[in-house]
Each structure stands twice: as C-alpha cells, then as structure tokens.
Amino acid sequence: MTETNKLDDLAKNIKAWGETLGFQQVAISKPDLDQASERLLRWLENGFQGSMQWMGAHGDKRYKVDKLVDNTVRVISVRMDYLTDSNMIAVLKDDNKAYISRYALGRDYHKLIRKRLADLTKKIEAEIDRLGLTDLQLNQRPFVDSAPVMEKPLAAQAGLGWIGKNTLLLNDKVGSWFFLGEIYISLKLPVDDNQQTDKCGNCRACLKVCPTDAFPEPYVLDARRCISYLTIESQEPIPEELRPLMGNRVFGCDDCQIICPWNRYSSKTQEIDFSPRHNLDNSDLVTLFEWTEDEFNQKTEGSPIRRIGFQRWLRNLSVGLGNAPPSERIISALQQRADDDSALVREHVEWALQEQQRKFNTAEEIPTGE
C-alpha cells in the first residue's frame, strides 16, 4: 500500500472515529486564510473588537497556521450540534424570564469537545504506527476556542458551511446551532472538496432583528453593540443607551439564529451534557438575581456561565429587571442589593430601580376611564 493510500485510509478512519466520538461532521481542509486575514485586519482597524484585545494579539499566528503549530499543512474541522429546546421565543416574550443563550444551558462545551478531540488525536497517533507511517513527522494539536484559531473560515473551507450575514457559520442542512473544534496536523491528508456556497441571498432577517443594531453592514459585527459581547466578554458597565434594548437577555443573545431561515432544518442534539441545568432555560429573573454567590458558584459549576463571575451575573440580571414590567417583588429584590460591595453591581441596580420607579409613575398617570 502506498503512502497516499495509507493517508486516504487514515482520513476515512478519522471521520468514522469522529462520528463515534459524537461529532456530527468531520472534514479536512488545506488552510488558506489570506482573505480571512484581510477581513480580520479591517475589522480590527474599525475597533469593532471592543475590549477583546486578544483578537489583535499573537501577530500572524492567527492566520498563518504553521506559525501556531509547526509544520501544519491540514486542519481537521469538527461540528457538534447543541440545541436542546425549542422554547426560545416563549422565553424572550416573557419579560419576567431570563433569556440565556442556548449554548450555555448545559455543560461547558470547551471541556467536552476538548476531551473528544484529545481522544481523536490519540487514535490518529496509534493509527500512524499501525499503518507504518512513522517516518512521517506527526505534529498535531486540538483547539476549542482556546487559541488564535480562525475556526469559521477554516470550517467553511472544509465544507461545514458558509459564513452568513450574521457572521456565524451556516449549514444548509442543519442551520447554525453547533460548536466547532479543530485539529492542526502536519500530515498531507486528502482534502474535502465540498465547500458550501453562500446561500443567504437577499435575506436580511438577522440584520433587522438584532436588538441593538450590531451589524453595521452584512457579514460585519460591531461587538461593542452585541449583547453577547456586552453580557459575556465585557467587564465594564453596559452602556446606558443600550440597556433598554437588551430586554431580558442576560447571558448572550440568539436572536440572529432564531430568525435565520436555515435553522428550520436544525434538530435537537443527542448530547446529554448539553441538556439545561437548574431550569436555566426557563427561570424568572428575580429567582436568579436572588441567588447568593455560593449558589451561583454551585449551580454554574462546569457551565460557561461561571466564566463571567457573580458580579457580572448580577450586572446583567439588573438590566433585565430594569426592563421588566413594574413589580414590587422586583423592587424589593433590587433594594436588597442597592448597597452591594461591587460598584459595578450598584450602578446597574440603581439604574434598574430608576426604571422600575419610572414605570410605576407612568402607570399611575394613565387614566383608568372610571
């Protein structure tokens, strides 16, 4: 068997192993990030990254893959679906509920996918020995949102989808409710030649539905206005002019996915670890706001939510409570934290109390007709 045939067999095995490990799609690309790097540099020049300074760090390691992992010539991209429920719109429409981005309801995907990719790299290493390819220099490293990796352009090159107007990877068979992971590898594996063309067409639904108007143009996101950035990445106070626009979205935002026509084809994941924990898919704002720090730490253990910490959790919930209908229970809960040790929390609690009082005053001014 020739070396080429052995690498063909290895590629087939990688895809079969990936499926066994719980990935819904595995594909291989020869990375070419020249165009993607140009778009990234323009995006950074416009300041759309906000405080995410790491987006401009690491020099050209982000788009010259062999500088991140020596001798990389191929990228194995994987897809894992995560959607667990279909009640997103109902929660969004209930102003007393807390909307949490659906990716964050269960176990932290970083840990789960990283473990699966590590298992896949071990299988590759063992297979290299079995196939007698030990004279080839094997160098490989898995990534899950953990290094300067341009995962969406790489996944698009591998055929996992196309980057849509909402800047997410869209797949014409499953939509966009999925995670991505990669393995950089030094072997010249056969490349998948099944790239999907851009099928967004004239649709602008995602651009129009964005609560904070975070898309200055199609295919460009201004993170500084994005609710996911404001509630997860940013450590600063949320700009006051954007707070009323956030509604009850307290950790991330899925509006541009919910509205996307291609997500009609999405299906629920079979991954048990992504199932909602502690009723986070349907909880009241006040209930979550009344958690103690110990409760927060206990109930977000192993969850992506843990990364923002208790103070930012309260910051986000305060905005949701300020946007909620006037309620004595809400005011009482906010008053309990009016003297919080954190200046960040106090500022947002004060704003929420003012909003609640304003709504009460407005309601009193409305004639009853009696």
Give a written overview of the molecule.
By secondary structure, the chain is α+β, with helices and mostly antiparallel strands. 39% of the residues lie in helices and 9% in strands. The protein has 14 helices and 8 strands. Strands 1-2-7-4 form a 4-stranded antiparallel beta sheet, sandwiched between helices. The termini are far apart.
Brief rundown of the structure:
By secondary structure, the chain is an alpha+beta fold. It has helices at residues 3-20, 34-45, 65-68, 88-93, 109-130, 151-158, 205-209, 227-233, 255-258, 285-289, 293-299, 309-323, 328-335, 343-365; strands at residues 25-29, 74-81, 99-100, 140-143, 162-163, 169-170, 178-185, 249-251.
Strand content: 5-15%
The Cα radius of gyration reads 23 Å
Mean pLDDT: 95
| Largest beta-sheet characterization | 4 strands, antiparallel
| Category by helix and strand content | alpha+beta
Topology, number of strands: 8
Contiguous uncertain segments of 5+ residues: none
Taken from the alpha-carbon principal axes, the silhouette is elongated
The rounded distance between the terminal residues' Cα atoms is 92 Å
Integer tally of domains: 2
Number of helices: 14
- Overall helicity: 25-40%
Order of helices and strands: HEHHEHEHEHEEEHHEHHHHHH
User: Strand order of the main beta sheet, please?
Assistant: 1-2-7-4
